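Quick start: what a row looks like.
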Amino acid sequence: MFKYILKRLFISIFILVGVSLIIYALVRMMPNNYIDLKYREQLQMGSITQAQIDEFKNLYGIGDNSFRGIIGGYFNWLGNLCRGDLGVSFKYEKPVTQVIGENMWISFAIAVVATVLQFLIAIPLGISGATHQYSAQDYVVTIFTMIGISLPTYFFAAIVIKVFSVELGWLPANGLIYASRDYANTFAGQMQKFGDIVLHLILPIFVSVILSIGGLMRYTRTNTLEVLNADYIRTARAKGLSEKKVIYVHAFRNTMIPIATLLAGILPSLFGGMMITEQVFGIDGIGRLAYQALREGDIPFVMGYNMFLAVLTIIGTLFSDIMYSIVDPRVKLGK
């Protein structure tokens, strides 16, 4: 397995290079860039000339949008990356690594909690729907599945905010803490701050979980139905084993085999989904910062954020392969 992991990590380097080249070219070909947006009003007022703007573009390394200029800019970015330098964000005027490091943890906390809850809720419900096919439980699972698959994040988040924040007033709808409160630099004050942060994160996590469990429940239900119709399940029942033991000992492990492949995309997709969720709930996590940076053509930060997601995807894929070999001993990772 160690040789397999080393091989996969070596191949991942070439994948990351290819992904970074595509992302960089797409960002450079966007109709707007940071300098044009920043100085648009000054240009209209006549306080700055187009020649000065072009000079600023050259200083920022985005002046030449020809094929040669884009390729040259990419290799300049790649060279800095090899030295561990992702550049300085145009918008936030800080090193990209610093901006990501300071703001990723709140997004990471939401993503991890949402992922854990997603599995804890979706898998039991999917199995319950399969073992009670065409019953009321199965129809409830189907309804949750349709909600999770069909509703856009911004639409469902707006409904949740209106119901739980505006109408009922149970939970806050924006930010991480109450702006009107002063938190003393004491243990009690910091615990109060932590409690307020948890309170503010309930709705974002709720939205993320509800919109994520639909696909996993459907996948679990389908796989469980296939496993329950297998010959070895009929044999286990014929031996007189209890239905609970048949389902949760014999069927469950084999149901988890295809589900393990889903691990590759869950964490990156949650971070990607945070871009919309954090924007709606006004949370200054890495997703919201990336959305604002993308709108303003902040190339260094957009590149750093997308490489962050690419690395998460590769790690998730590798972790998925390892989990696959654990739940199915027949799979060997020696090559």
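That is the whole record. Residues 2-82 form one domain. The mean pLDDT is 78.
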